[in-house]
Amino acid sequence: MVPVSVLLALLIVGFLWYRILTKMGFKGSALWILLIMLFFPVTVLAAFIYLALFPWPVQKELQKAKAQRSHSQLPQPVDEIDVELDRMRGEMGLNQMKKRKREN
Fold first, then answer.
1. Which one of 14, 29, 37, 72 is CB 3.0 to 4.6 Å from 47, fit for a cystine?
2. What is the DSSP string of 20-83?
3. Rounded Cα gap, residues 16 and 77, in angstroms
């Protein structure tokens, strides 16, 4: 019974680490190398140092997008939250709604 529970625990931990690393933006061999490193006590410290000190792929993509946006001729949005809210309102069709006239 103990080997089955240990195997089940390793599968659960492995799945959770896999989901975390994919949300960080890791793909392909880098994902699998980090995942394997996190299972061995000798290499887990190296994996944590790498994750803590080096930029994640998601951060690199964000910096690249910001650099492209700053070089473009489009006007810069004042607040990213307002831009996102306007986009969401547009998707929901709230920008096309007519305002009701109040009857007194």
1. 37
2. HHHHHT--HHHHHHHHHHTTSHHHHHHHHHHHHHSPPHHHHHHHHHHHHHHHSSSPPPS-HHHH
3. 36
Determine, yes or no, domain membership for 20: yes
pTM above 0.90, yes or no: no
Residue 103 located in a structural domain? no
| pLDDT tens figures, 29-85 | 989 999 999 988 889 999 999 989 998 888 888 888 888 877 766 565 556 777 777
**Do the Cβ atoms of 71 and 62 come closer than 8 Å?**
no
What local confidence, expressed as pLDDT, does residue 9 receive?
A: 92
79: its two tokens: 């607040």
